Known about the structure:
Strand order of the largest sheet: 1-2-3-5-4
Order of helices and strands: HEEEHHHEEHHEEHHEEEEHHHHH
Helix content: 40-55%
Structural class: alpha+beta
Shape: globular
Amino acid sequence: MTSDRNADLEGFLSCAGWRDAERLPLTGDASTRRYIRLKRRGETALLMDQPQSAEAPTAAADATPEERKALGYNAVARLAGADCGRFVAAANHLRAAGLSAPAIYTKDAALGFVLIEDLGDDLYADTLAKGTDERLLYGAAAEVLAKLHAEPAPGILDPDKVLHAYDETALLAEVELLTEWFFPVALGRSASPSETDEFRSLWREALAPHLSSPPVFVHRDYHAQNLLWLPQRRGAARVGLIDFQDAVAGSKAYDMISLIEDARRDVPPELGRLTVAHYMAAMRAQGTPVNEEAFALEMAVFAAQRNTKIAGIFSRLYRRDGKPRYLDYLPRVWSYLAADLAHPALKALKSWYDRAIPPDARGIPQRGA
């Protein structure tokens, strides 16, 4: 941290009344954000430190695909980048829906400091590792999605953040991470122009029928590392929500897939089926039933899209960012992807994957690549 930013941080904490608190840095993630737990007189809070110049900018809501591409990947893929104001706006939206996103105590969005409620350390991943009933936790997470999907996606996250559409441009940019980053790592070569063109065309065709459905609020990284168990609360509020600043307006299927095809932990297929069934029952109970056959197809498409993206992102984290631990997740991701592509509607895409990426290249790439 530069001396100027450190001075800004001290000033922010002083104004917030937390300058003299004990400071406990938390383990970082794959982003440029960092979190510090603050403790004072029996109280805790979390400081989000997100330098506003740390990442490429996002784009205006009405920017064309060409204008978005000129701004870089964040704009193309509808990522929040360093805009901590999006975290604040999304948190307020979720809390207004009766869900357990952190309360916002105070903020300086221009500097990139936000003081938020501390929801604790009981991540789903850790709680499940201690033996807590998987069906209980995943059922509660399904209830959160049903509550979110009871209403259409808002156009604006109060006060002024557009909830961007998870559109074709963003979805295609994500799957193309596979040809851009996974190919060189796993196959030792770049994808050929003909491979890339066919890949893009097949994905455009697969996604097209699902882009006109009424959109809902999509968390986008709804999995066991971003959910906390809060058993002292009731109903859907038992699930603490974090890391939602990249939220978009998109398919009901997307967050369900994030949950039951978790890249970082094995989710047994039977647990996945039970979770989907619990979601369907909750949707019926609140008067917003979902067509099960159509939802199953949509899950297959967005599961294949998401797992393709993840294979590319984890390869990028290894090759560009020097984080080899992400390669360890690839066998699980490819296992999910093989099952996703088995859906009859994805036959043409499955054929492309089978031709372009041999089965023996779908595990952990050679780390010297």
